[in-house]
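Note to self: user wants both folds in one dump. Writing first protein now.
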Amino acid sequence: MRGRKPKPTVLKLVTGNPGKRRLNLKEPKHPPAHLSSGAQEAWRLAIRSAPPGLLRKLDGSILEIWACAADLYIKAQTGMAKTGLLIKAPNSGVPIQSPYLAIANKQAQIMMRAAAEMGFTPASRSRVSMTVDANEDLDPWESIAG
């Protein structure tokens, strides 16, 4: 991505729009309220980092999956940092793999699949081609009722 990161529409509305550029009023305003705070932060990161016009309303469910998986992945990594890769089995005391490792691995797989679907990985971004005209409606399918 070239140039300066775009300023979020909310900040433009609060501080003014000195460049008088068109405001993106379809920008997702808030992550879903039912998400955990960690998943909401992952959602915000994805929205800030995605190229303008890449994500549509229909992508919301995939973005939720990615954000929840990202939150659980971080929690599993934090748990592993505390316990280590191996723990003692409760009954026998034999070293076994930490349950956090399986959780982290599964969430990483989910994140990678969802990220590839949304064009978040370097390989998937190279296959995405889109043009956004400043005068063009960013979501031409929005008017179709479903």
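First done. Writing the second protein, which came from a different request thread.
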Amino acid sequence: MLVIYLILGAVAGTLAGLLGVGGGLIIVPVLFEVFTQIGMESSVKMHMAIATSLATILLTSISSTYEHHRHQAVLWPVFWRLTPAILTGAVLGAVIVDYLTTSVLTVCFAAFELFVAYQMWFSIKPKTSRTLPGLSGMLSAGGVIGCISSMIGIGGGTLTVPFLLWCNQGIRKAVATSAACGFSIALASALAYGFLGNNESGVPEQSAGYIYLPAFISISIMSLLFAPFGAKLAHKLPIVMLKKIFAVLLLLLGLRMMMLAILIYI
């Protein structure tokens, strides 16, 4: 399966650089299929896919944030106001997932993926109707972003960017700040999933809690290598058309996951 992990990392890294979305929406369903093929316990394989996906975001978010910081695009004051609640929300999300069954998690992920596919196909963006909220509003937003992202296995870009755009922040700074927030989500989630899965029955060898290390290492390395390649392609390829293609891919993956969830339930 090492070849699959390497290819998956290359695809996820390229998409992250090309479209500005994390690879979690691709990594989670593919890992779920792979874990099924290698005979991983059905009670933990969705948990493992989500946790491993979040762990891979650690390295790619550092690389991405550094590049954005070099261009002075990261809104660091906004990042620091969101981060405490993001960390708390991410841990809470991991705790919630620990109590959910594979079938419920699969349905939740599939529904979110179908929502993102719809959003990308129709290029739905929030209207810039207000400024950034006060401390309580920022903490509420950070908590929701952290919790949902941790439960789905993503870096939060599909949630953080729309929130910042709604608060009248520029798209480039919104994407850059989202990348920095992705590190906070990945760090808190990875630590929480690593701890929660330690005593879980069915977790395979070569795992750190719910994080499957062979997949984590392989995907992370290739994502780091291919993210700059995707960023270069972004300046040469028609992004609007690529987003529609990606939306179709997410639609197919979402429907596949929903079907698998129904089969698990049956």
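Dump finished. Worth passing along: The chain has ten helices and two strands.
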